[in-house]
Amino acid sequence: MCRWLAYSGSPILLEELLYKPAHSLIDQSMHSRLGVETTNGDGFGVGWYGSEGLAPAVFREVGPAWSDRNLREMAGHVASPLFLAHIRASTGTAVQQTNCHPFRHGSWLWVHNGAIRDFSQIKRELVLAVDPSLYPAMEGSTDSEVMFFLALTFGLDGDPHAAVEQMVGFVEAAAAGHGIANPLQMTIGASNGSAVWAFRYSSEGRSRSLFYSTKMQTMRQLYPDNPVFQTVSEDTRLIVSEPLGDLPGAWNEVPESSYGVVHQGDDELHPFRPRLP
């Protein structure tokens, strides 16, 4: 599978999360503790928001993140208040740049950990359901990108959580028509530049790991001598496939079949219920 993180808060250098923590995303690319695979070396990517009103920037490569000198150089110079990063372990599709996350369309970034079971059997049905106006923007061959464009088709711009619920419902219905049991495994991070949505769900009710950070006010009380917690803003939040360190009280597991929203310092957590579009 894969590992990913989403950050929202005070502008920070990308290296603060990609490289510096004890169990940073780069460390997870070699030594994942909670993933299906220990190594995630089939490509990587990072997407970040800069000036307000501009589309997010994306940097993606096919090699392993731990040895990419360009990523290391860039991460020490690019700062952002909102970014998503992803390290990939392919579930069968080609290792190529267009299959690396984050996927981008307009103001949206999308990262995914998981898979659609027997994707090749239902791929044609799923792709044909993508809005014709969106289809030319699809560049890769992964189930993750198809899920993204189905969510866009079902109204991601207007109602993100409803669009993802409908996407999942559509995938599960298509799989049922082909006799595929428990077809979907997913944690998803998505952002339009103003908020971050995170989803944890699987058809069998045994989803991949996903965590969110404790509110910064609490972290300052728990660790008054930590300089990082003292300098970032109150509304700083992190969502991660697995914790970046072992600080007690710093991380909370996203419940099974749930989705969360981070927007201007407010946290929301709700049940996730697939439904047909």
UniProtKB/TrEMBL annotation:
Keyword Cell inner membrane tagged: no
Q: Where is the Glutamine amidotransferase type-2 domain?
A: 2-277
Q: What class of enzyme is it?
A: hydrolase
E.C. number: 3.5.1.118
Which Pfam families does the protein's record reference?
GATase_4
What UniProt keywords apply to this chain's record, in alphabetical order? Glutamine amidotransferase, Hydrolase, Transferase
The name of this protein is Glutamine amidotransferase
Where does this protein come from, organism-wise?
Kribbella shirazensis
